[in-house]
Design goal:
heterodimer, A: 345 residues, mainly beta, four-stranded antiparallel beta sheet, 27 strands, 9% helix, disordered N terminus, B: 367 residues, Neuraminidase, 28 strands, 6% helix
């Protein structure tokens, strides 16, 4: 990709000067009278011309055009400009078109400078030969730009990889933000910025990937401070109240809408599903809002009743937990059957 | 010159090599026209199911980079097609799936489920015959990571977030031990590095060849997709690998591993105990094993992208004895360009998937 970009830039630099050079013969050569029509003006519905890059005719007078469209394409028209067909639709061979040519047997050849490929098609559109090899995308990946650093930008109206949102009973909006900022932002119900708190770290008023957020009926805010393996509780003005540190690294947290309310927190396994890690993670905890742990369910894994990197949970009903798993590409609905000793009701 | 060198090398390597080089030519016919791909592209994988349907996992469409918040996401460079036994297109499977980035291989398990192996996403996806997604093993790197930008990536600073998801180069820049376990062995996890192939045993365990990147190991998962065991690391000794390109299992559960960088096939029992090695067949890449009795093994000595040397496919007994060879590298029908996949359910019908020539040929061997 990068390479292609550079090639493009270099091409511009090389091509630009001659394009603007005035011909020496311009002033001394007589003009030849001529007429012209726009040839390609009858595209079928849903097909569009892009930059016209190459044009060629075959022995029957049909016209072939290669174009840089959303995706490069090769079109065939009859001599009157009626669309006939497309060559190699959706093919691997069109990265950035450059030329189309027709050989003596009326085979159609496309030249593509994006995929580094020369393709030969029979007149009926069948692919006859591939010359060259498109660079493997996986070998290009390492040339791509790097990932986002921690910003600490703390801007009122923009985020850096935000992670979650919740609301208090008044409708105020709280956003956990996120991977590359490290803060909680509060807005009123109309989206007007009120305040924010938090920087990256493991101290007071700091977070290391605030990954989930949930509010209770009193408007207190519970933050899944994943990287610090703690749940941080803030009051409605984002002042620190308390911290719960007994339930692993919380990826998803959730507060039920029951009375009393319960807090659920996932001690998710890592996304590699590494055996040593998975053996000691994966369960989901049920807590009172004051942090007292009432019980747990599940473990890391991919079978049913196992959780493969839980990312988010829903617990509107405290005994009906929906679990979204990263590694298994699925959602499970877990129905809890609390015993009298664990339900505390 | 290359040829001569090769012959010299062959002589040095000894009897086994000589027997392979002088193996009888098997006459064959190749049909390059059976399948017409709905979208042309490199045929990385070809496989048949028990009803003779043919599956092609192709590198086609375009590798697309989505621009995010200073991160780049990569998707969409692979499609999976099904054809009926006559070659008529039946359907596409897994359109737009998250794990379809760089087609590497497709295999059919004993229950006719379809497994797509993707070396770009490091993900294996399992589909039911009707196309439903059944299981996924492995996780795709979230973004294309790589050159550290002006600042350090957040998660490098944040060393406490040990459970944070990895950013990984799809290019396989990770998983290589990193202080845990043997070098180039990977961790006991589904963090793969350019996986290349998959095989199955009777108990439903899944064996994954991992792979061409920085892991050189076989990883085994149970039918739920949970880790069972693994073996192998980077190297050239017994049980060590240098770029695993293919793998098949025989009816007894033994595994044949195309250890391409070491120019050999290593044979293990299902527990990972080394049994033997097969050499003298060039650089083994694509493998297949017949369902016949006795079983036979086919192994391609595929040409590399910058030459038309080699390209022949060997037929072997399971004990490693070469029965014969057929084909050579090239572009016209009947020749093989960068073979990446073989399927040989029946002993004398071999499907050959080619990277160079964007096609799967159906080869009929003559007795």
């Amino acid at each position: 990709m990068m390479r292609r970009l550079c090639a493009g830039v270099a091409g511009l630099l090389l091509c630009a000067p001659p394009a603007f050079a005035q011909a020496k013969a311009r002033a001394t050569t007589p003009e030849i009278p001529f007429d012209s029509v726009s040839f390609v003006n009858k595209m079928p519905a849903g097909l569009y011309m892009g930059e016209a890059i190459g044009v060629a005719t075959n022995s029957k007078g049909n016209v072939f055009v290669i174009t840089r469209s959303g995706e490069s394409k090769v079109f065939e028209f009859d001599r009157n400009g009626n669309f006939v067909k497309e060559f190699g639709r959706g093919s691997y061979g069109y990265g950035f078109a450059h030329a189309v040519r027709v050989d003596k047997d009326d085979n159609v050849w496309s030249v593509d400078e994006g995929s580094n490929l020369v393709l030969k098609y029979a007149p009926d559109g069948k692919l006859l030969m591939v010359l060259g090899k498109r660079p493997d995308a996986i070998d290009q990946l390492n040339r791509m730009q790097g990932t986002a650093p921690y910003s600490g930008a703390n801007r009122p109206y923009s985020f850096h990889r935000p992670t979650d949102v919740t609301w208090d009973p008044q409708g105020n909006i709280f956003v956990s933000d996120g991977y590359t900022d490290s803060r909680i932002v509060k807005y009123d119900k109309n989206g007007r910025f009120i305040k924010s708190m938090g920087t990256r770290g493991n101290g007071l008023n700091q977070f290391s990937t605030p990954h989930g957020i949930s509010a209770d009926a009193q408007g207190n805010i519970y933050v899944a401070d994943r990287g610090n393996s703690r749940v941080v509780v803030l009051d409605n003005d984002l002042n620190w109240k308390t911290t719960y540190e007994d339930v692993g690294a919380p990826w998803g947290i959730c507060i039920s809408q029951s009375t009393p309310q319960y807090l659920y927190s996932t001690a998710s396994s890592g996304t590699n599903m590494e055996v040593e890690n998975a053996a000691v993670t994966g369960e989901i905890y049920k807590m009172q809002l004051d942090g007292k742990v009432l019980g747990r369910f599940g473990k890391a894994g991919k079978a049913i009743k196992e959780f493969a990197s839980t990312h988010t949970i829903d617990c509107r009903n405290p005994n009906e937990i929906y679990v979204a798993e990263i590694n298994a590409w699925r959602v499970q609905k877990a129905t809890l059957r609390p015993t009298s000793s664990s339900s505390q009701e | 010159m290359k040829r001569i060198l090769q012959l010299l090398t062959a002589t040095v390597l000894g009897v086994c090599t000589l027997s392979a080089q002088s193996a009888p030519e098997i006459k064959y016919e190749a049909a390059a026209d059976v399948l017409t791909l709905p979208a042309y592209g490199e045929v990385a994988g070809v496989a048949t199911n028990s009803r003779g349907h043919v599956f092609v996992y192709a590198r086609t469409g375009h590798p697309v980079a989505t621009l995010g918040d200073e991160r780049t996401f990569y998707h969409g460079n692979a499609r999976l097609f099904e054809f009926d036994p006559s070659g008529k297109f039946v359907k596409e499977i897994g359109q737009g799936t998250y794990g379809f980035d760089f087609a590497q291989q497709v295999r059919i398990d004993p229950e006719d489920n379809i497994w797509a192996v993707d070396a770009g996403s490091n993900v294996l996806t399992k589909f039911a015959p009707d196309g439903r997604l059944l299981m996924v093993i492995g996780r795709k790197p979230e973004a294309i990571a790589v050159r550290p930008g002006p600042g350090m990536p957040a998660r490098l600073i944040d060393d406490k977030s040990a459970t944070a998801p990895p950013t990984g180069g799809g290019g396989g820049g990770e998983g290589g031990g990193a202080g845990r376990g043997a070098p180039g062995a990977g961790t006991k996890s589904e963090l793969f590095s350019r996986p290349t192939d998959v095989a199955f045993d009777r108990a439903g365990n899944v064996y994954i060849a991992d792979g061409m990147g920085t892991n050189n190991r076989i990883a085994v998962f149970n039918r739920d997709g949970n880790w069972v065991r693994g073996w192998g690391q980077t190297g050239s000794g017994q049980g060590q690998f240098d770029k695993i390109r293919g793998m098949v299992a025989d009816a007894a559960g033994n595994l044949y591993v195309a250890d391409s960088g070491n120019n050999r096939i290593q044979v293990f029992d299902s527990q990972g105990a080394f049994k033997s090695e097969i050499t003298g067949i060039g650089t083994p890449q694509a493998l297949c094993i017949t369902a016949s009795s006795p079983q036979y093994l086919y192994s391609s000595n595929s040409n590399d992208p910058e030459s038309m040397d080699n390209g022949e496919i060997y037929k072997l007994q399971l004990d490693g004895k070469v029965v014969g060879r057929f084909g050579k590298a090239g572009r016209v029908p009947g020749e093989f360009g960068m073979v990446n996949s073989l399927d040989c359910r029946a002993e004398n019908t071999v499907w050959v998937g080619e990277v160079w020539n964007w096609r799967a040929q159906k080869v009929s061997l003559k007795r």
